Amino acid sequence: xxxxxHTGRHFLQIPGPSNIPDRVLRxxxxxxxxxxxxxxxxxxxxxxxxxxKIIQTSGAVVMYSASGSGAWEAAxxxxxxxxxxxxxxxxxxxxxxxxxxxxxFGIRVDYLPGSWHRGVVVEEIEAKxxxxxxxxxxxxxxxxxxxxxxxxxxxxxIRKAMNRLGHPALLMVDAVSSLGSIxxxxxxxxxxxxxxxxxxxxMMPPGLAFNAISEKAIAAGKTAKLSRSYWDWxxxxxxxxxxxFPYTPSINLIxxxxxxxxxxxxxxxxxxxxxxxxxxxxxxxxxxAWGLGLVCQEPSEYSNTVTAVLVPEGxxxxxxxxxxxxxFDMSLGAGLSKLADKVFxxxxxxxxxxxxxxxxxxxxxxxxxxxxxxxxxxGVMAALDSLAPRSKPAPSxxxx
Amino acid sequence: xxxxxHTGRHFLQIPGPSNIPDRVLRxxxxxxxxxxxxxxxxxxxxxxxxxxKIIQTSGAVVMYSASGSGAWEAAxxxxxxxxxxxxxxxxxxxxxxxxxxxxxFGIRVDYLPGSWHRGVVVEEIEAKxxxxxxxxxxxxxxxxxxxxxxxxxxxxxIRKAMNRLGHPALLMVDAVSSLGSIxxxxxxxxxxxxxxxxxxxxMMPPGLAFNAISEKAIAAGKTAKLSRSYWDWxxxxxxxxxxxFPYTPSINLIxxxxxxxxxxxxxxxxxxxxxxxxxxxxxxxxxxAWGLGLVCQEPSEYSNTVTAVLVPEGxxxxxxxxxxxxxFDMSLGAGLSKLADKVFxxxxxxxxxxxxxxxxxxxxxxxxxxxxxxxxxxGVMAALDSLAPRSKPAPSxxxx
Amino acid sequence: xxxxxHTGRHFLQIPGPSNIPDRVLRxxxxxxxxxxxxxxxxxxxxxxxxxxKIIQTSGAVVMYSASGSGAWEAAxxxxxxxxxxxxxxxxxxxxxxxxxxxxxFGIRVDYLPGSWHRGVVVEEIEAKxxxxxxxxxxxxxxxxxxxxxxxxxxxxxIRKAMNRLGHPALLMVDAVSSLGSIxxxxxxxxxxxxxxxxxxxxMMPPGLAFNAISEKAIAAGKTAKLSRSYWDWxxxxxxxxxxxFPYTPSINLIxxxxxxxxxxxxxxxxxxxxxxxxxxxxxxxxxxAWGLGLVCQEPSEYSNTVTAVLVPEGxxxxxxxxxxxxxFDMSLGAGLSKLADKVFxxxxxxxxxxxxxxxxxxxxxxxxxxxxxxxxxxGVMAALDSLAPRSKPAPSxxxx
Amino acid sequence: xxxxxHTGRHFLQIPGPSNIPDRVLRxxxxxxxxxxxxxxxxxxxxxxxxxxKIIQTSGAVVMYSASGSGAWEAAxxxxxxxxxxxxxxxxxxxxxxxxxxxxxFGIRVDYLPGSWHRGVVVEEIEAKxxxxxxxxxxxxxxxxxxxxxxxxxxxxxIRKAMNRLGHPALLMVDAVSSLGSIxxxxxxxxxxxxxxxxxxxxMMPPGLAFNAISEKAIAAGKTAKLSRSYWDWxxxxxxxxxxxFPYTPSINLIxxxxxxxxxxxxxxxxxxxxxxxxxxxxxxxxxxAWGLGLVCQEPSEYSNTVTAVLVPEGxxxxxxxxxxxxxFDMSLGAGLSKLADKVFxxxxxxxxxxxxxxxxxxxxxxxxxxxxxxxxxxGVMAALDSLAPRSKPAPSxxxx
Lengths: 400, 400, 400, 400
Known about the structure:
Four copies of one chain form a homotetramer.
Chain A: E1 11-13, H1 22-28, H2 38-55, E2 60-65, H3 68-77, E3 85-89, H4 93-104, E4 108-112, H5 122-131, E5 137-143, E6 145-146, E7 151-152, H6 155-165, E8 170-174, E9 193-197, E10 208-213, H7 215-223, H8 233-240, H9 251-267, H10 269-290, E11 293-294, E12 306-310, H11 317-328, E13 330-334, E14 343-347, H12 354-371, H13 379-387
Helix pairs in contact in A: 1-9, 2-9, 5-6, 10-12, 10-13, 11-12, 12-13
């Protein structure tokens, strides 16, 4: 088989940036306008109003010109003081990175070791908090959906544990790869600071980052001693109610966000979540049929936006990804840090549908063949069985 | 299974208009310019130069603001006189429509009846021409790739038959759904008038139509008595060498065409033809695996741009298409005239690749399930086997 | 002064194609869809409904994939028979071209000679019609706004003359450069066939052409003997009520037209007409201030979409245009046929505003300077005085 | 005069964001890609290579997903330690804002008071530095082009003064509204840290920010004690040589930047600077003709990207701007902080040309009329005289 010249659409199936709807790209592709004028202020106010529905909050939301990492930093510098202690659970690569951000600002992070095969073990968090009689922990930091492993954590369970103990720490949650795809209920779960960015479930290019902020977090900011300017909430919040920013915002990206939010709200949150679940299940059915392993080992914590798949020992996930990119023009996510070359990750989030998923899984299945990776044929078929069950389905492992 | 809100990309798998590359749409999306200025003239000259490579001609090409039907008409009115006789073979719906155009201009068409299950039967054409001792037939009209049935005809064989007989009729060929996808050799095959349009293998929106014209056809035009103005070749040819038109051309579509031609030439004609063959074969493998019938019954004439599939009697192809559109957001082609509701057509041409094909066939397979149409599972798998054969392939029907 | 590298936006001030709004270009820049599907049918029906408001008709409208020349041809071939006589008045280059189209189809055109300095002289038309006792004239053809001279004709006056005489000829009107810019009342003026195209007041790229058709014209078509296929109204009208076409329509251009119509209707016809009048007046004020001559010598017939300006004898209008294009990146219209090199034409139609006009006139004024063409400074200032009169205006020639 | 419905293009003549070329918007409007793939890495490397030519440096450049304010902060936190002293001169609103950023990080800023009517008074900087025998000042911070006043400062003179004294402080320069428009020679002027952003001379939407960094600044970073994560140069520099980033970059904006850089380099830096000078001069000629005052009172320091104009006492600049926006659809910059309502600012930078400038000044002149602000007619004419001098020019004030 010779090299194939690439034609047709690239399949971008990394777990973010996700595919951007044409409507959104076209909205971005509009002349820039005066960011201090009334028209733009109206767009900003509308956008901040609509995004609250996605975050399921009636509280404060700030929007940065930044990647999601900036919103991690913003969460830290707006609420904490040098030397403060916080509690985290190791869920994977992104929890590690967030920890690193905190430590760079002199925060002491108690980082409970994890296997990367499951989400936050709430019992361990609860145990540590219950030992913390004098409330040294100023915050609990958790990643809702760990993009490196395809594992979600039960944020509400963490909140309930904190409430049971009456622990006053702030609850900060990275919802970067869950928001707009997997149910996230900011107000109901009493999250104090949420971190999100534009390029995942929000179906946007990277470049915008968000914090949703509770009253308690805002209050904490009044005494927090870490220096801050760009990330400072106070100035952002003071201006954003009128549709303005302390500095020139990413005007064109905000055009796009408005369009993306409209699309999400037209679909409806419950439909969005059901769709992602449907695609997560079908993907996992394919993986099972191939006889490959999932990184996530806890069925109740399977991610519906990304599936991390183990290749058999002695085989290279990166070589597989290179073959798939070269032969089928599909980008898959790499294994990160300790999972490097052992894992490939399939993004199935955002602007996506059944046939795109079928094409994606076909690319993986053909890639497995071409790479000589031991597997059983039939993953795509299993996915079709999951998406459109036969009237008399063949016996198969039923999920959950 | 409840209604699914459509997200992700629509699968446009009708046999044209075909999917348009983003690069082409973006080229169209450019401010209009003076069509009498030097910059535009340069674009026109470049475009007419490059399209000759696709048509495989060094001869004259004219470009109309029109759909392909206009180029059918142009072929007639530029070469024939009222009452002239021409010879055609019935290959399907589009040969019928072209016949109708000719008859509207007072041309007497000898229309050899065909089954719609194969292409032009060259022997029958040859027999009719051999009887035509006094060369009453002024032209032979043939459809290269009959879009309604998924059948190609052997144009070069027709030409050879004409040459064997020394018959002076013009050879006019509809290459609408073959040009840029299936090998078409204008000069080598000595075609006198080719008809094409922008929205198939040229990966463009509809709106541009083309004639490629031999010296002999131009000469015929000098005595042809049908009235013509918009379609008149003389004025077009006189101006187009300098990059101008007798009337305001479709400037923005020409921007797009230039980009599309660049993409095609970057891929290379032989790669393009091989790719379409690869996708045609995989599609037919899927149809066979499902146990459904192909309209085209002559393997040497299978179309590599469109596959027309018969649904079992007692079932509705249109209901199947409606289900697939509703559930999986994919458009397929309908059966036309006498094939209405009996056939659905899968377009696999233009800006397309393996994973798009896999998604397409998955949509058909799931649609068959949901519609209760009797079939055997495994069409998608058969297509994957065709696209990326297993090292030890399962025994299967080998095509050709 | 050395050559300037072009930056910023090109000023496209030819009298069409006119500048296209970004909204319209962006609407065109959307994936193509199934032209036989329900979604596209809805777009077509909406578009045909809305364009009737611009044409001010409740009657039939057909839309071609073609340039405006095609709609000229359509008007002829759908209503007339070979040898029919029609009456026209020579208003300029475009009336000549339309005459030529008619003659190519065997129509005998009585072409009343005109000076190119004014519009249709209705008295002359009336005189000819009154001599035509046995109603040999099957149609009167008139150009509403003669783009080559910047002159409008009084279509309603022609109709009234025809009605006074009870002459049954059809009234056919070229509204190519007036529709959507200068008041055109199809039904009230009892026009039988209107010809228009997309690239002028409709703010679209070229590629779509239109006929608005009276019941009487449709009836005439039933006995008209000219051959027709592509341009045939019957088939178009039969299908278009359901949003379909006899052949693949220019889908992406229709996306754009829908958007353009929305913009026009949002502005409102009376506002549009007033805006064009305002810009026509200001342009003429500039021309007068420069001391140059207008081609149109009848103030009641000044065009509000295009102004044709005479350069003093011994000077080259084309050299002036080349200087302006080279130095100021502005395209102006050339003088056509007998006005070649004697005239330049300023388009001030479509997607346009006061500051674009000021920039346009500044380019002309600076071009006059650089070209050494005798003139008086102050044209731009005179235009500003027209657009935003000073509280105590300087004495100036008042128009009309 | 009644309200005018807005049509045609908006005139965005604020001093940034500036008008974005269609080519750049169209480049942004492209599907997002894998930011960890080879194709994107190539784009990043090319972009960082080309931007160095604009900055006139062969040294290190980092690119942030952020507004320019982020790059101010980055300059501070990467080089300084809490309690460090720096020296600044008050040139206007933006020097104040940068000072504020520094102070938020515990930097002690000696802020030499200025009139806002001229740039940095190098003698005062030199005097302070010469008093600083023990080199308490770790950095001198200067704004190259003060956007609030339309005044440039002589950065090279500051550098020479520092060198004369052998003062080791870092020289940090805000080139936000000069880079790509007004000559800025990073290496020759021995600037240690440059701050820039995308939405001014780089002709891009806001959302990207830049630091150009000397070896000395990088070395200073090794001992600088301010906390940093998002803005940290080390990680950025380590990855960017290979085309990667520590976090997901603004992929689509980087597509646009690549296109914008290509356009700038095609024009050529010397042509760009000459063009901006030409437009600055013409704008000031208009202001003088109107009899209005310039905020900048030092001719050698006139800005060529923005002109700040004083309205006569008793009149409101904001009311004027509102009139111009309402009647002529043009956005102008407001007076900031102490200049609020006293000043309006005309941006004449980036993707701009003579006719856009003429339209801009026509809008101001008509706005002055409609607002009843005392002025002399003829500003536009004076600008035309500046752009295209008459062969026998009328006597006029010659600039410089």
